Amino acid sequence: xxxxxxxxxxxxxxxxxxxxxxxxxxxxxxxxxxxxxxxxxxxxxxxxxxxxxxxxxxxxxxxxxxxxxxxxxxxxxxxxxxxxxxxxxxx
Length: 91
Prior knowledge:
The protein has helices spanning 9-33, 37-42, 56-76, 81-88.
């Protein structure tokens, strides 16, 4: 799509699905990689200012949702491949 052109409803839906799918794939891979981190973290001496462990799940959920929205907006706002490349970190 050329910069400045509007996306069709189908393109917006595809952009949303791809953005959410990409973030979900990365989130699942990250959660698998961090499966043993709770035990490792419990063994550390942490400073008092470290947030409680129950807070990490909700914060990462919000961050992942915001990443999906950012990817969807970059794609569907007619910015073309450059904005999507920036969102993916490849530009």
